[in-house]
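Researcher: Quick test of sequence recovery. Tokens follow.
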């Protein structure tokens, strides 16, 4: 019993120390949080909506709302990191866990806000240390694909390009 109480106290302390307890002064409606999340997407995606989020909204509206309000409106909007650092951290995290789709989305956002290709490559080099070469190689392939897409003239398919 004493061990359970100690565990609960430790868990509560960790939650408080890590800042997971919302500040009562910051409490806002879900709509306000969603609006903040929509503003984040607008900022990162050059004023466009996010296709994955919009697709999710059709079939999984609760998941889309939670993503927009919590992940974007609460977490992504926090003042502790600038948007470049957030994007680099997201790219590194998604690369390290092997989540290629979201890594590509966030690498695109990073490029949209001024992160360079060279900086993204450095992030992938760093991934070799905590996640290993296979994850970094997979991530490098995703970045190469993204870079090629962005260099391709608008409306042109890869097969239409000259070697």
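Model:
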């Amino acid at each position: 019993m004493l061990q359970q109480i100690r565990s609960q106290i430790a868990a509560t302390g960790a939650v408080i120390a890590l800042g997971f307890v919302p500040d009562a002064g910051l409490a806002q409606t879900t709509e306000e949080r969603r609006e903040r999340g929509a503003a984040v997407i607008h900022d990162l995606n050059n004023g466009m909506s996010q296709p994955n989020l919009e697709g999710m909204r059709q079939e999984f509206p609760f998941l889309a709302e939670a993503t927009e309000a919590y992940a974007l409106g609460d977490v992504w909007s926090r003042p502790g990191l600038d948007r470049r650092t957030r994007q680099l951290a997201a790219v590194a995290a998604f690369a390290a866990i092997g989540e290629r789709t979201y890594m590509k989305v966030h690498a695109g956002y990073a490029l949209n806000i001024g992160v360079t290709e060279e900086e993204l490559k450095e992030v992938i080099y760093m991934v070799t240390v905590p996640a290993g070469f296979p994850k970094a190689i997979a991530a490098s392939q995703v970045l190469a694909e993204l870079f090629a897409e962005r260099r391709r003239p608008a409306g042109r398919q890869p097969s239409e390009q000259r070697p």
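The chain has two domains: 28-79, 82-163.
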